[in-house]
Amino acid sequence: MNYTEAKNDAIRLKVFCLPITLRCNLKYKLCGAHSPYYKNPYHPTLNSIKRQIDALFDVVGFIDKFDIGGGEPFLRIDLPDIMNFLYQTYREQIGHLRIITNGTLMPLKGSADRDSFVQAAIIWNDDFNIIIDKYPVDANKSEAVADYLHQYGVNSEVRDYTDDLHCGGWVDFGDLTLKYDDLGGKRMFEKCSVPRQGFFTSICDGKLFPCGRARILYERGFGTDYVNLADETLNIEYKRNQLYELLFKGNPLKTCKYCNGMCDDSIRYKPAEQLT
């Protein structure tokens, strides 16, 4: 299980990701966020992000590891504002904050923006770091980003995919066609490492999804595995119960019938292969 009961029956998550944009400067063929396949990628306003965070913490009491991701998060000039909002409003409900970047962009461009980013990062002390993914494409830039962050005292870690493919490489979750019946979906759920790791939970447009695949299916008009945290007609207890049923009862997702899964026997591919 990836939760514990907290005060007022709030839920505790071990891992959560806030995609602050689905825009990206790269075009990964097997992008788990589906970023290169959008005509107009999701890119919410700062106020929308704040409202979604508020709605999340209405239901969730504590998050051990809070990830800011994308897309590519360094495409947002207001990234320091998001970090500061999390610190000022929900610091006591977040164990560790981290940002995951593809390692090809420096954190913000102008000196004033850089200073605000550095201040927003170091205020978290050791409870903040940046994961810099180093891929074969533009690998030298990843080291430059790491050196830049080190210069300003920002905690970072290079995750090198050029020599160590991590679990053998990326997987292809497949197209969005129906692949299994209920029994096949159950078997896929039991094989997939995503639920075993506590799901890849994220919030997008006010809706909390157990994985990226569930979000994409919803966007296509036939996904139902989510909790609408932004729906003000639903009370907090109802949303909390929905979230508990979705994440912690051990029931297969409808999404699993449309997915190849991230399984031990999944075919692995070279990371970060770009679309032509």
Describe this structure in words.
This protein has 276 residues and is of the alpha/beta class. Helix content is 31%, strand content 17%. It contains 8 helices and 8 strands; from the N terminus they run E-H-E-H-E-H-E-H-E-H-H-E-E-H-E-H. The protein has helices at 46-59, 79-90, 111-122, 139-151, 182-191, 193-196, 212-219, 236-248, and strands at 11-19, 60-69, 94-101, 128-134, 156-160, 202-204, 207-209, 227-228. The strands form 2 sheets. It has a 5-stranded parallel beta sheet. Strand 2 (60-69), helix 2 and strand 3 (94-101) form a beta-alpha-beta unit. The longest helix has 14 residues, at 46-59. The chain starts with 10 loop residues before the first strand and ends in a 28-residue tail after the last helix. 37% of the residues are buried.
Helix/strand structural class: alpha/beta
Percentage of residues in DSSP E strands: 15-25%
| Number of strand segments | 8
The shape is globular
Poorly predicted runs are 1-8
Radius of gyration: 18 Å
Oligomer: single chain
Entry summary:
The chain has 276 residues and is of the alpha/beta class. The protein has helices at residues 46-59, 79-90, 111-122, 139-151, 182-191, 193-196, 212-219, 236-248; strands at residues 11-19, 60-69, 94-101, 128-134, 156-160, 202-204, 207-209, 227-228.
